Amino acid sequence: MKRREFVKKAATLTAGSIVMPYLLPSGRVFAKTNAPLAEHVVYVIFGGGLRQQDSILKRYLADSQGFNSEGNILNNMLDGAAPTSKVAYGIGEGGTSPIPKILSQSLQTQGTIFSEMRAISGGHYGGLNSLLTGSGVAGQGLKVRPINPTVFEYARRFGGFKATDTWFIGNSIGNSLPLLNSSKHPDFGLPYGANFFAPNITFGSDGYATLKNAKIYHPQEELEPMYKMKNFLDNSFNIKKGDMPGIKNTDEERTQIKEFIANTFIRQAAGQIPMPPVGGGDGATLGYAAEVLRVFKPKLLAVNMSSIDGCHGNFTGYLQAMHRADHALGFLWNYIETQIPEMSGKTILCFVPECGRNKDHNPILDANDWYGYDHGDSNSLRVFGGMVGPNVQRNLMVGNEANPIGKVTDFNLTIAEILGYKSEVKSAGIIDPQAQSLFDRI
Amino acid sequence: MMLFLVSACKRENFITKFEVEETPSFGDNLNKDKDKTNIEFHSILTTNLFQKPSSVTELSRTDRVIQSCGDKTLINEVIISNYMNTSFVILPSRQMMVDSTEKFVIDTYIRFFIRRPSEAEKTWFINFINANKSNPSFRPELVYSSFAASDEYMFY
Fold first, then answer.
1. Concatenated DSSP letters for A168-229?
2. What is the ipTM score, two decimals?
3. Sequence spans of domains, chain B
4. Measured between alpha carbons, how far is A432 from A406 in angstroms, rounded to an integer?
């Protein structure tokens, strides 16, 4: 080869390698842009509408029912003494005994709390959308997939994760929850969606009657020819991306999930599903989330809670649900740290409600003659959130009532930073333009 | 005048004849662009497999279960295999599949897709079934399951 020809070819190759990105097998186009802060993220939507005054501000009944009783009822999440009078949120007759805390150190001590953040919406679905998409879109319709990509789609597209690496665990199939595992955005959508289970249905009485008796086919003798035929039929039909009825797992992943479903019924019958010591509220949802974590060790799992929303008509039930949600959260973090060695010390737990609750009560009284609270006013936009795990500063409280710091839309970018693709999410230009990673807020 | 009358038009003998035009009753897969609802899907599926419709209670329960899973194809496969594990499912025999493979393939396409297979599809399936004859686990149940779990079966 002549020298001139060699130089020309070498220059072309070098330029090409710079200009043309390397297409990874997973479909991601670029290598990760920041060093990951952790290998896994568990994102708990501490949801249902959590009134700031009754939770992080620890005013118990003082700011809601006019009784001079203050104290902390989120004893796994926050530091602070429990209320000493009119205790009705615990266990036993009248709920007078708080549930013993699970964590030896509160999440506040172990991590960082943003004590006064701003929600995007005072409603559930808008709030959930903002938490999962990081978008400030307020006009999201019910019964439709989000307009903008979810945290799962960013993770799969930019993080290069497979479907079983991303999970959304819902506490029901109501409130359009099953539609939140993927958006309908043309550049993302179902090909990048997360797996979804609503365990109270999938593994409840409905699932038991419909799935429990499913055959376990032999992987080579039976499943392999079955998948070959199905794949041939699917290739002949050539479904369009926009017409996909759900997300797609690979054949290998499908086999793994089928085994998971079958084993879950077996473990359920044997009482082996990990569950919070005290049941009720959203505890079972977090128990099944722990089971998914144990088996799949996903990169990103989001789980939704909503029992707290009983506050519309039962304030006592709301306090009990909040206390049990804290108990379940403590259980989940403890389970990850002590029972899943592959995730222990490598996982960041994020938690935040989708919205707060009103400043003023509604006229509905419960059995204790305590008023209920709806959500939708400006007080409903007051929320708090936190994170704990490797690379998260310990024992740090950021912001206060007079100085709000952070928005719920920050969590999407925060998760992107944790998993190593923050700049891609930013460059996509679809998230709330005011959103920042919570690490940058600090 | 006489010449004009002789050469004038004559009355035609009309024969009214009604016939049925030959029209293929099976379509193709090109026009299937509407996805079945969960209830439609399982109503049709159970009628196919059990030769009788499911109750409304069963259908709404199945609908909830499908909604509770993100991968619809996967959960349908599990539900199908659950149906296959009942004694009520009506399937052709393995002998029929092996002895009359072409008829089995055509019947299966018509049963599930309401259309005949193309020549390429028919050939592929006949070859595939023949290649798996020596596998004793290869049964009509697997063929039916793959059709029932296919993308095309989810559309109409």
1. EE-S-S-TTGGGGGS---TTSSGGGPPEEE-HHHHTSHHHHHHHTT-----IIIIIHHHHHH
2. 0.88
3. 38-154
4. 12
**Residue scoring higher pLDDT (A411 or A241):** A411
Q: What is the pLDDT of residue B18?
A: 77
pLDDT of residue B6: 57
Question: Are the Cβ atoms of B135 and A221 closer than 8 angstroms?
Answer: yes
Q: Measured between CB atoms, which of A211, A236, A239 is closest to B82?
A: A211
> What's the rounded mean pLDDT across residues B89-118?
94
Mean pLDDT across chain A:
91
Tell me the domains of chain A and their CATH numbers.
Answer: 39-194+266-441 (3.40.720.10)
Look at A197 and B69 and tell me if their CB atoms are within 8 Å: yes
pTM (2 decimals)? 0.87
Chain A, window 158-197: residues with a beta carbon less than 8 angstroms from a chain B beta carbon: 163, 168, 170, 173, 178, 181-182, 193-197
Please report the pLDDT score of residue A243 as a whole number.
Answer: 65
Of A196, A232, A234, the CB nearest to B70: A196
B35 Cβ under 8 Å from any chain A Cβ:
yes
Three-class SS state of A301: strand
Any A CB within 8 A of B88 CB: no
